[in-house]
Amino acid sequence: DQQVKQNSPSLSVQEGRISILNCDYTNSMFDYFLWYKKYPAEGPTFLISISSIKDKNEDGRFTVFLNKSAKHLSLHIVPSQPGDSAVYFCAASSSRSSSNTGKLIFGQGTTLQVKP
Amino acid sequence: ETGVTQTPRHLVMGMTNKKSLKCEQHLGHNAMYWYKQSAKKPLELMFVYSLEERVENNSVPSRFSPECPNSSHLFLHLHTLQPEDSALYLCASSQDLLPMNQPQHFGDGTRLSIL
């Protein structure tokens, strides 16, 4: 049973427009969420995170929104650039889990293509 | 340049071979992790080390054996692997075990192929 889901395997956006990547989770114990970006032949690179005490976190062109009641988070990239083309993973963890090991649960990833 | 370095980048081995994957982090972090990424599957956590002590073994078969000799180095020893073990193996580190405001930083991975 997947606790973190990214239901869109791929997304194509025109350069300069907004990219919106979505992620849903099922475990209400999750209280920390992250987005990673991955280029081919490289490891995931941390992009932005948000804790459950917030509903929005912004860093330059990247904004993450958290809707706890819907158990949904999204990553907005504005404006999108061709260099943003990569696979984007959302991940979640719980500081309240019994083992408290900082375990990250990842989604399957969404491939973003930004067309020039 | 990544602060987490993995070697080798690619490894092809037979099912009867013994090999080791190496991970080194230059970030002064206290926690290190091994993940497995199979085709079309999410990253799966395998092992967690904090201050050189293993704190999580995520039901991983014994043919995978981790070793953490110090806080900067992590190894994954492999023996008698199966074809389904072919995957990308990623190492990560974080400042401490708790994740709050402390994201995990990943290496570029070792692409493992079992013949």
Features of this protein?
heterodimer; A: 116 residues; mainly beta; six-stranded mixed β-sheet; five-stranded antiparallel β-sheet; 0% helix; globular; B: 115 residues; seven-stranded mixed β-sheet; four-stranded antiparallel β-sheet; 11 strands
SSE blueprint and pairings:
The complex is a heterodimer of chains A (116) and B (115).
Chain A: E1 4-5, E2 10-14, E3 19-25, E4 32-38, E5 45-51, E6 56-59, E7 62-67, E8 72-77, E9 86-93, E10 105-106, E11 110-115
Parallel strand pairs in A: 2-11
Antiparallel strand pairs in A: 1-3, 3-8, 4-5, 4-9, 6-7, 7-8, 9-10, 9-11
Chain B: E1 4-7, E2 10-13, E3 18-25, E4 31-37, E5 44-50, E6 53-57, E7 64-70, E8 73-79, E9 87-94, E10 105-106, E11 110-114
Parallel strand pairs in B: 2-11
Antiparallel strand pairs in B: 1-3, 3-8, 4-5, 4-9, 5-6, 7-8, 9-10, 9-11
Summarize this, please?
The complex is a heterodimer of chains A (116) and B (115). By secondary structure, chain A is mainly β.
Structure report:
The complex is a heterodimer of chains A (116) and B (115). With 116 residues, chain A is mainly β. Chain A has strands at 4-5, 10-14, 19-25, 32-38, 45-51, 56-59, 62-67, 72-77, 86-93, 105-106, 110-115. In chain A, β6 and β7 (62-67) form a beta hairpin. Chain A is globular. Chain B contains no helices and eleven strands. In chain B, strands 2, 4, 5, 6, 9, 10 and 11 form a seven-stranded mixed β-sheet that branches. Chain B is globular. The mean pLDDT of chain B is 90. At the A-B interface, β4, β5, β9 and β10 of A face β5, β9 and β10 of B.
